[in-house]
Amino acid sequence: EVQLVESGGGLVQAGGSLTLSCAASGFTFDDYVIGWFRQAPGKEREGVSCINSSNGRTYYADSVKGRSTIDSDNARRTVYLRMASLKPEDTAVYYCAAIWLPRVVAGTATCFSAIGIDYWGRGTLVTVSS
């Protein structure tokens, strides 16, 4: 069974940092791009960051670029998203997602669209207080 299990969410002060984890199982890890999306109440789900484990390439949304780092521990099949300088606007449920690599290569799915995602985690809530 495919599973993506997020952890690391919680309440943090503005300006603080946290690290989110996504533990993957049930599929060939290296054949998928692993990404993070987030969804605030009443808002569309938006891409935050993703990593292509097969070549190590990473991508970041403009909203988090420069203050976030995504990396992968392939042996543990876990992807981490480290976020710093958190803002109240970062408050959202953060979801881990897996996209079959050929879809990304073909351009039929991207790290920043919630359409075409193969697998979703259940999400972890990040709340950033003012």
Summarize model confidence as the mean pLDDT: 95
**SSE string:** EEEEEEEEEHEE
Termini gap: 40 Å
Task: Indicate the overall shape.
Answer: globular
Fraction of residues in β-strands: over 45%
- Rg from C-alpha positions? 14 Å
Largest sheet, in brief, is: 7 strands, mixed
Tell how many strands the DSSP assignment holds: 11
Give the fraction of residues assigned to helices.
Answer: under 10%
Total helices: the number is 1
Structural class: mainly beta
Quaternary organisation of the protein chains:
single chain
Pick out the low-confidence regions: none
Features:
130 residues; mainly beta; 7-stranded mixed beta sheet; 5% helix
Short description:
With 130 residues, this protein is mainly β. Helix content is 5%, strand content 50%. It has one helix spanning 101-106, and strands at residues 3-7, 10-13, 18-25, 32-39, 46-52, 57-60, 68-73, 78-83, 92-100, 119-120, 124-129.
General description of the model:
- This protein is mostly beta strands.
- The protein contains 1 helix and 11 strands; from the N terminus they run E-E-E-E-E-E-E-E-E-H-E-E.
- Strands 2, 4, 5, 6, 9, 10 and 11 form a 7-stranded mixed sheet that branches.
- Strand 4 (32-39) and strand 5 (46-52) form a beta hairpin.
- It is globular, with a radius of gyration of 14 Å.
- The relative contact order is 0.30.
- The mean pLDDT is 95.
